[in-house]
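are you around this afternoon, could really use another pair of eyes. what follows is a protein written twice so to speak, once as letters and once as structure tokens for the fold. i want to understand how the tokens follow from the sequence so walk me through it. anything you notice is useful, everything is just below.
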Amino acid sequence: MISDLKGVRCVVTGGAGVIGKELLDILRQAQGIVLSIDKNPLPEDFNTAGITHIVKDLSKDALNEIYDFGPEIVFHLAAAFERSKESPDFWGVNWKDNMFLSHGIADAAHRVDTLRVFVFASSYLIYSPLLYMSKSLRHDPVYLREDAPVNPRNITGAAKYYTEKELDFIKEYLRPELRIVSARIYRVYGRGSKDVISRWVRSALNNEPLDVYNKDNCFDYIYAGDVAEGLYRLAITEAAAGVINLGSGKSYGVGDVIDTLSSFFDLKINDRGITENFENSTADIRALRSLTNWQPPTTLLTGIGQIIEYERHASQGAQ
């Protein structure tokens, strides 16, 4: 049983990403022995005590370091994302950095005899959009349960679902003793991210107007630090297995984000109108709460405040 991570060997793919850096901090504080792999380096000022970071492209490079390291836990975060309505150019990126990369990691993981837990950063984009999107405005959020109907919304969601099914195959036929968690993560925002909240913060700091689309849409925004904490807690919770929602459990409108930013800035808004069906989706996190005795604590106000502080510091350092 893994009750804590002191001395436990952990692999994190995508360690230099917005969730990955938060997770590395948590694993370092938990005194885990960590191998981080990403095609990007960690920031020069990042505390790497107890962490080995390797820069390599997991979609094409050999994975010998994972075999040699002999992890007990793998956190698979490495992935590529675009906007919900993806561009034609993303088709090849998705195949390489989502489908092919994840297949390689899953294949390597099932061959590592020391491995006990595999935690996969999946996505709520797997759920059928017919559940939470509509042509008319829906005022009450749709709480998506883990057993809700599946029909991936885009090719990213399809890639995530395929990886979930590969992991199910490994569990059923190859490594029945392996505990696998597929955390379906909702709308992540965090420090140094490419998400819309970070983009708007950077625009506001530069006194630039914010381009706002679909102002009435509502999402389950979850702070990247909370995602990392949730992944950690799912890894050390022996009863956690299979698909588990990882969201805030709250619905925030795009207008709520604008109002929160307005408490920090005198905003200039370019309202670009409605370009898609209305969305109002939220995670049903009863399973997460029941299993881990925890739920994400960061409010939208607190999370945005931390991003503003981070971006201000980053902009000053760049000058």
